[in-house]
């Protein structure tokens, strides 16, 4: 059953409550992460009214507020997936190949099926429902080259009240003919999608040159012109994911200082530009060495970073598992990632990366009430292990280590419960 926080109703969720008062990379974990074991979040008209200590929150709400109690649970901001390809659900787990071979062998064949709008809708529905099952309430999504692949995901997101960024892939070379547009057609179709969807409710358009290798210079110019024409839209793409890709880009785009600078030189960097991967970048690109979370988040370097599933190259929807993977990589690189920082990168930090601070990703009053409720006893092992945690940071670490979709007990979007693990989708 949905629990709408309608105009006349305030909804109060009770349980442990996690939020952020600052960036834990900049201000430190203790000064940033806020946890109330006896906490509450009050919601009205789809927005957060108050969050924190239950007694203090309840003192602020009308006596007729509706209350939902979640025992042994953590109420947290809904997760944000900064980069994902919904059309790639049919190839999740098709691995064993380097990037460029993977694109040719699995991805491009799979994306050709989206010429069929009914198929696209079926996958978009599954994709969004999986997001909700995993507590993901905002995502930045790639469609295929087919404009209707974006129409269907926006339509389905709108029906659920979800905040979503999405765009049709721009590709005018180096892919099968069935997946190619032209600079002009890509521009025209993207413009029509912007006019149809951008700023409608919680939806935003992302101009989506897939990566420089599948766009001619003319297409990057057209993408850039469109971005300038429609301020407030996003740009999303890929950069520097593999060495072979880097070398290919050097031959396709000679004369640019770096791969990232190809995008820079075409006017495709800046606020609201979201680039996936950025693994092989140099000092001038990021003011850092190779992509290295600790250094990239150094206070002196203003690089906004968010976590992403990158399905279907990525293999799971769970942001808990994505955080765990980020922690493992950080550990291997010799600078362990504090769990509260991982959590921030999947919520408030991801919101900052998508220029949505104060809108989603946190529990500050006035923000949109997108939340997930995590069950600290979701599995027998999790329940057992949670008995032995000493503090919230250890509890967060344990959720990353042992949690997955089973731990997502409920998901709220704009104050309405849209997923309940024990009841199904509302
Ligand atoms: N680079 C260009 N296209 C893609 C894609 O679909 N997935 C990933 N991971 N990298 C890409
Ligand atoms: Zn990707």
Could you characterize what this model shows?
The structure is a single chain. The strands form two sheets. The protein has an eight-stranded mixed sheet. Strands 5, 6, 7, 8, 9, 10 and 11 form a seven-stranded parallel sheet that branches. The protein is built from 17 helices and 15 strands. Helix 6 packs parallel to helix 7 and helix 16 packs antiparallel against helix 17. It folds into two domains: about 10-80 and about 360-420, Urease, subunit C, domain 1 (Roll), CATH 2.30.40.10; about 80-355, Metal-dependent hydrolases (TIM Barrel). The protein is an alpha/beta fold. It is about 35% helix and about 25% strand. The protein is globular and about 60 Å long. The chain has helices at about 25, 30, 55-60, 100-110, 115-135, 145-160, 185-195, 215-230, 245-250, 260-265, 285, 295, 320-330, 340-345, 350-355, 380-385, 390-400, and strands at about 10-20, 35-45, 45-55, 65-75, 80-85, 135-140, 165, 170, 205-210, 235-240, 275, 370-375, 410-415, 415-420, 425. Zinc ion binds next to strand 5. Guanine binds near residues 85, 99, 211, 238 and 310.
CATH architecture field of the largest domain: Alpha-Beta Barrel
Quickly name the level 1 CATH class of the largest domain: Alpha Beta
By DSSP (H or I, 4+ residues per run), the number of helices equals 17
Structural Rg: 21 Å
Associated small molecules:
guanine, zinc ion
Give the tally of structural domains: 2
User: Would you identify the regions where 5 or more consecutive residues have pLDDT less than 50?
Assistant: none
Shape: globular
Summarize the biggest pleated sheet. Answer: 8 strands, mixed
Name of the CATH homologous superfamily of the largest domain: Metal-dependent hydrolases
Do you know the CATH topology of the largest domain? TIM Barrel
Strand order of the largest sheet: 3-2-1-4-12-13-14-15
Number of strands: 15
Termini distance?
A: 5 Å
Mean pLDDT: 95
Kindly name the structural category: alpha/beta
Strand residue percentage:
15-25%
């Amino acid at each position: 059953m949905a629990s709408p926080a309608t105009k006349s109703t305030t909804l109060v969720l009770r349980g442990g409550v996690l939020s952020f008062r600052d960036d834990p990379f900049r201000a430190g974990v203790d000064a940033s992460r806020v946890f109330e074991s006896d906490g509450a979040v009050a919601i009205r008209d789809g927005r957060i009214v108050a969050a924190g200590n239950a007694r203090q929150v309840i003192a602020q709400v009308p006596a007729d507020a509706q209350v939902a109690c979640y025992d042994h649970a953590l109420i947290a901001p809904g997760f944000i997936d900064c980069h994902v390809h919904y059309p790639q659900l049919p190839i999740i787990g098709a691995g064993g190949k380097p990037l460029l071979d993977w694109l040719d062998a699995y991805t491009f064949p799979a994306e050709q099926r989206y010429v069929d709008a009914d198929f696209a809708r079926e996958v978009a529905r599954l994709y969004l429902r999986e997001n909700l099952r995993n507590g993901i309430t905002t995502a930045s999504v790639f469609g295929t080259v087919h404009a209707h692949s974006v129409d269907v995901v926006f339509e389905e997101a709108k029906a659920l009240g979800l905040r979503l960024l999405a765009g049709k892939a721009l590709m005018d070379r180096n892919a099968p003919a069935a997946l190619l547009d032209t600079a002009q057609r890509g521009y025209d179709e993207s413009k029509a999608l912007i006019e149809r969807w951008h700023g409608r409710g919680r939806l935003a358009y992302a101009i989506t040159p897939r990566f420089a290798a599948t766009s001619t210079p003319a297409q990057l110019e057209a993408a850039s012109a469109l971005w300038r024409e429609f301020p407030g839209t996003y740009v999303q793409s890929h950069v520097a994911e593999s060495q072979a890709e880097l070398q290919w880009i050097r031959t396709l785009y000679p004369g640019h200082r770096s791969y990232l600078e190809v995008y820079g030189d075409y006017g495709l960097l800046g606020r609201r530009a979201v680039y996936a991967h950025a693994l092989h970048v140099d000092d001038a690109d990021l003011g850092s060495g190779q992509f290295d979370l600790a250094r990239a988040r150094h206070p002196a370097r203003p690089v906004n970073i968010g976590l992403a599933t990158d399905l279907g190259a990525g293999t799971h929807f769970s942001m808990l598992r994505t955080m765990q993977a980020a922690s493992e990589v950080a550990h291997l690189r010799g600078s362990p990632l504090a769990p509260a920082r991982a959590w921030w990168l999947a919520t408030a930090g991801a919101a900052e990366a998508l220029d949505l601070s104060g809108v989603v990703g946190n529990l500050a009053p006035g923000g949109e009430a997108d939340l997930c409720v995590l069950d600290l006893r979701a599995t027998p092992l999790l329940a057992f292990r949670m008995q032995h945690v000493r503090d919230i940071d250890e509890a967060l670490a344990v959720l990353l280590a042992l949690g997955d979709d089973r731990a997502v007990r409920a998901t709220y979007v704009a104050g309405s419960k849209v997923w309940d693990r024990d009841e199904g989708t509302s």
